[in-house]
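Ticket #4471: structure export looks truncated?
Reporter: QA, pipeline team
Priority: medium

Steps to reproduce: submit the single chain below to the structure queue and open the exported record.
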Amino acid sequence: MVLRVLIAALCLICQNWLVSCDPSNLTYIESAAPSIESSSDTSSFVQVILAIVVGFGGFVVFFCRGGKKKFKGDAVFLVGSCDGGKTSLFFRLRDGLKNGNLRGTHTSMITNEATFAVVDDQDSEQKPVRFIDFPGHRRLRPLLFANLEDCRAVIVVIDACTFSHQAREIAELILDLLTSTALMKHGQRMLVLCNKIDAMPDDLAGIEAKKMVRKRLESEVESLRVSRASGLGETDASAVRVELEIAGSNFRWSDSPLEVEFVDFSAKTGLGMDAVRTWIGQLD
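Actual output as written to the record:
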């Protein structure tokens, strides 16, 4: 008797879950699920098997008929290496400064997502935008590329103070983005933020970070492009990619399928925030 009740409960749970996902699944369940009360002659073992089959069949129906994630293609992605300042930018855009201070952050393995109107010091009207802040860990990079169809614009956040040590890694990320067929479905623009310019080391004093970063990344992207074309570079075999169309012999930012801009920025002091707000406001 207890077993029969458990089986009935299992069937009911499966039915309620499937119907909540897609009401049309009810037709499938009603035609496939056994009636526990009217099957007194059926062995408990057979009922267990049938319950499992119905549950499994429900999962198949769910994934075949609506389980695939649907992308809106309207999000602004915040990407980059660890400790570059992506999450600081996310909270600065959402919350502004709290009592004159930027909200503290730490390296995280989670994704931050929210839809909000960018905070404006002048309180001007801003339309709500969906932002997704992806972790910078390389081993979580597949999570980013699995969701690129949801992206209409991407902000690459760079630590300008340590850029020289990360230039190759950042260039690899940018090249992967620019050659992704998934990103090209809805992607329009790319903004490279040279963050932490308020803390530039003495040996870089007086240098305009965005010009330095732009030139170095252009060179690194070209080097990687040539290596991959000759079969020497590493690529993600699971990703569908296209070749960059180069007007001359070497890659230039004008060859990018996305419009690319560079901005000097400081999440801490707010330098460059007006340029970021303007860039976001120009998105279609």
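Status: closed, not a bug. The export was complete when the record was re-opened. Leaving a note from the reviewer for reference: Residues 102 and 268 are 6 Å apart (CA to CA).
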